[in-house]
Each structure stands twice: as C-alpha cells, then as structure tokens.
Design goal:
This protein is an alpha+beta fold. Helices cover 29% and strands 33% of the residues. It has an 8-stranded mixed sheet, with helices on both faces. Strand 3 and strand 4 (86-97) form a beta hairpin. It is globular and about 45 Å long.
C-alpha cells in the first residue's frame, strides 16, 4: 500500500445522515472515544475481541499511534465511524494481505444509540468499495459469531456469501468462539456495480 492511502477519509450520505469513515485523532477524539466506549461497555462486551494472554493496557494515544503505524505499513485501515460529525463507532480493515491473495478482514462496532438505522451496513459497503477500488484488494471477509444476530443482519443486507463455520476462530469476551465466515470478491459484483449501490437498490431511501 502506498503512503497516500493513509490517512484517508471516506464519506457518503445515507438516509439524511452524513456517514464518514476517518482516522482517529490522538488528541481531538480522546475524550469522546473514551466516553463512547464507557457508555457502550455492556452493549459491546459480549462481542469484543480479547487476548488469550495477559497484556499490559495501552492508552488511547498509544492505541492510535500503533494503529497508524500499522496503517502506514499497509496492514490495517483503522477507521472511526462518524455520523454528522459525531463519533459513533469503528470499522477496521485488518490483516491486509497483498501478493496472490489481496485480501482483508473487517471488524466493526457501533454505539447502541445508533444501532438499527442502517449505518453499519452503509459503512461496511463503503469500506468494501474502498478496499476494492482504491486499495486494490480482491476479497473482503467478515467473521461473525453465530449468535450475533445484529451483525448477521448487516452482512445479509449486503448479500455477502456465507462460507461456513470456523471452529474456535477468534478469542472473544474471554473465550475462543466459533464464527461464521462471510465474504465478497470483486467478481461477485457486476460491471460498474458497487456495494453501496447494491445496498441503495435493495433498501431504497424512504419516500
């Protein structure tokens, strides 16, 4: 990945809201991010990734610097999700691989207050389009616990292909958990089609 691909911000309009994927800012976003995570701790805890080994905690600034370094190396795109300028969650393209694979995974979370408005499907569609059109990837996958019904609804709205169960795939909330794997490759899109366009066609703006 070339340096020009990070930092980057991507924005679009969805049902009267301006949805933006952008980098976190170590100073400007700290208070809002910490407050948002605290407010949503019970909402996200069941689905948060954890480490199977004890690790020293890192500050918000350290986390942002670490993620920015990974982004500069082309390994990660650590987006914050903002709606009308308000920070509401995160969406990461991670494990970015080049060569013959040209693939990445996606992980995300959103504030409970903004859930159910179609923001996450729109943000995911935007991230996948960016991965294909700008980053030059061929495949994007999302791995979801079978009991995470909200997240399963997100990938189904985008018609991502269900590729089956991965046993004890990720360490989540203190345990190794099974996940279902959903994916899309460039060939799944018709000529000129985008994921955002697919979402808008399937779920048109209310009149």
């Amino acid at each position: 990945m070339s340096e020009r691909l990070w930092p980057v911000a991507i924005a679009g309009d969805w049902r009267g809201m301006r949805v933006m994927l952008r980098p976190l800012r170590a100073r400007a976003d700290r208070a809002e991010f910490v407050r948002l995570r605290a407010q949503n701790a019970a909402w996200t805890r069941e689905w948060d990734s954890t480490s199977p080994t004890q690790q020293a905690p890192v500050s918000f600034a350290q986390m942002v610097r670490q993620q920015d370094r990974q982004a500069a190396r082309g390994e990660l795109l650590p987006f914050a999700v903002a709606v009308d300028g308000e920070l509401v969650g995160q969406m990461h393209l991670f494990n970015i691989v080049r060569g013959a694979l040209r693939s990445a995974g996606v992980g995300y979370w959103i504030s409970q207050r903004y859930a159910g408005r179609g923001i996450t499907p729109f943000a995911l569609a935007t991230a996948i389009d960016h991965a294909f059109e700008t980053v030059g990837l061929h495949r994007v996958e999302v791995n979801i616990r079978p009991d995470n019904h909200s997240s399963l609804a997100v990938v189904r709205k985008l018609d991502l292909r269900d590729e089956g169960l991965r046993r004890a795939y990720l360490h989540i909330n203190g345990q190794w958990r099974d996940h279902r794997s959903f994916a899309v490759v460039r060939e799944d899109l018709a000529a000129g089609e985008t994921m955002v366009g697919r979402l808008r066609t399937t779920y048109p703006e209310p009149v």
